[in-house]
Structure formats: C-alpha cells, structure tokens
Amino acid sequence: MKWCSLILLALLGSAGVQAGETRLQLVGEARLEVLFWSIYDSRLYSADGSYTEGQRPLRLELQYLRDVEGSDLVEHTHNEWQHLQLRSESKAAWLEQLAAMWPDVRENDVLAMEIGESGGSTFTLNGEALGSISDPEFGPSFLAIWLSPDTSQPGLRRDLIGMN
Q1: Where on the phi/psi map is residue 115: left (φ > 0), alpha (ψ -120 to 50), or beta?
Q2: Nearest C-alpha neighbor of 140 from the set 110, 108, 115, 104
Q3: Are 70 and 125 spatial neighbours (Cβ–Cβ below 8 Å)?
C-alpha cells in the first residue's frame, strides 16, 4: 500500500511547477504554429490554476520545437511589442537586457519567465537561471505578447488562459 501512496504523490506532484516556496498550477497550454511549422508549446501557470490579469506569481514556459537563435527571439519580442503598440521608455533597455541574457535555443529547450510576488521577472532555460529584470513594468509588458486581448495570436491566448 505504501508504494501506491508514493506513486499517487509523484503523479500529483507533476501537475504543477515549483516556484520558490509557491507551487504553481497549470492554467492552460497551447502550440504556436506558423504556416505548417510548429514553433513551440507554451504553458501558463498560476498559484491557483486560473488566470486573472495582474496576478502574481505567474509563469510562462515555452518549449521550443525547433532551433531558434537568441537574436531572433529578441527581434520577435520587439515585433510583438510593435504590434501591441507598447509605449514604454524602458523598451529599448529591456531589449538590450534580453539580448544579453537569451542564448540560442535548441529543439526541446524550455525557456521560462516568472513574475514573482515583488513584480520582478526571472528567466530560466531548462531550469537554469539566465537572469532577471527587476522593473515591475517589464513582466506584464512581456506577458502581453501572449496574454493581451490585442495579441497577434488570439487562439493561443484563449488556450493559455483556459478559455477553450
């Protein structure tokens, strides 16, 4: 009977993501496809498994399904902020920080960003720390690429926030 309890605990433990002291629960997941190419699988996590704008902590994971250069990730971030008409005096500095932080990603790498309780944002690649941006305005601006009602990928947004 003891081994059944251990298996159950292992299965329950795999349903969320550890974030410091807080266990995050899956809100939703989606795959980004462009034409006939699969780019990444995305997953959004929150403390209670639901999404409300402005909540903390919040974690977005992107598991890449192809190799992508770090410079392309930064360029895509810039393009998506242009699409969203992001108006922030810090945008250029953020892009420089991302360019210095993000490496090239390979197929199956998981790039994640988490906004903590304090509003700072931390990036990891395959669970290893890449760096952080302490500006509390950055995290919501970055997540808006996926979570804004004005995102370029509304279907992906619906899946991530659990609307589908």
Answers
A1: beta
A2: 115
A3: no
With a cut of 70, say whether residue 10 has pLDDT above it: no
Q: Would you give the end-to-end CA distance of the chain in angstroms?
A: 38
Q: What is the pLDDT of residue 61?
A: 98
Q: How confident is the model at residue 23 (pLDDT cuts 50, 70, 90)?
A: confident
Question: Across-strand partners of 11?
Answer: none
Residues 26, 44: Cα–Cα separation, whole Å = 6
How far apart, in whole angstroms, are the C-alpha atoms of residue 103 and residue 97?
12
Nearest-CA neighbor of 162 among 54, 13, 49, 55? 49
Per-residue CA distances from 42 to 5, 13, 65, 85 (Å): 31, 20, 11, 23
